[in-house]
Task: structure prediction
Amino acid sequence: MTSPNESAQRGSWSSRTGFILAASGSAIGLGNIWRFPYVVGEGGGAAFVLIYLGFVFLIGAAVMLGELALGRHTQRNPVGAFKATAPGTLWKLVGLTGVVTGVAILSFYGVIAGWTVGYFFKTVTGSFSQAITASESQEIFGGFVANPAASVGLLFLFLGVTAVIVWRGVSGGIERVSKVLMPALLALLVLLAIRSVTLSGAGAGLAFYLAPDFSKISAQTFPAALGQAFFSLSLGMGAMITYGSYVSKKVNLVSAVGIICFLDTAIALLAGLIIFPALFHVGLSPSSGVGLVFQVLPTLFAELPAGQLFGAAFFLLLAIAALTSTISLLEVPVSYVIDEWGWSRGKAVVATATVTFLIGVPSALASGAVSFLSDLPGAAPDFLSLMSIIFGNYSLTIGSLGLAIFVGYRWGVEAAAAEFQSEGVPAVFKPIWAFLIRFLAPVGIVGILVYIIATQNYF
Result:
């Protein structure tokens, strides 16, 4: 358990609502609005979406409950949580994997988050006030991300803002920001979805997104869908263990997980309703890759009444959604350094943010600024995409596998369930969750990884 001084440094949520909004904010971000549409586009559309939804509610929700229960039980960071429940063993490496994964994801996630800030200023200054074609939008995006000063500078800016909020602590920084801004993002997304589905050509986009064509499923569909589920829910990176360590014993973890998964999935599906009708309206390919959102939406805003205002509001709120995720990603290593090394919160924030920035510079230069980072051999076209594949798909999946095995067998479902059974959860829930965490999650994850290793030369 933490000492009084450690507790002051670590902080806690001031309310159940604050925790749910902050955890949802961690899950709801660029993973839903930026990453989800482009991996759906590359994965074949509606068939991918169905597989993704199955992974979210059958595997992702079970793993999330295990992470939150472990965090609340130990009140420790990801490494400390495993050390507390399995002292003197190598299980702490699962937690350390989560910390490393979180830093790696933040390093390239911060680059994309910086793009949202850049596009906010582009919209405000009138870059998209006139109607533009899809090819013009692609050209603008390509020139923007190939500017090394802009990409690196925006990465630095975004990580700096993230560091300031994390420095302010849990309730004073993370929770306060999440309470205000997440509802605003949801309202704007609903308005944009209503407009997008009424565009000419929207029917083809909706058919791609909502009418499954199982012939489009490939060997990469399953790991991509599973990786997206873990990425979107912030699993396997230590974030939910860390957030769980700040949760009051009075909070019903089961209902909280249900709400978080529902909100996260709703936002992802809503983002698809915005992107794919607009995508087919402007004639771009669904497999346009990491720049999909930035290439499609400016053409949509140019056609809207008060489109400049809508565009500026969207990219501002998208940046804020990214911020609610980056603060959770930075909080993971900060919590680790505070707990395990005894550093003050301020020192831990400065050190971890600096390291993350340095790791992120290659990703910031990987979209045209530096040729050898922008044109890689193999399945990943550039360094940023490679980082997304390694850490956004495989590392998260491996970390979640370790968590499921640990909770299901080493810590044990009885001990884990004791952390949430006293909260009025129906007795029938425990055996269902035990089956999911002990059998379905590990078998499903291992099966997918073995299949990929045996059949694909992915890199």
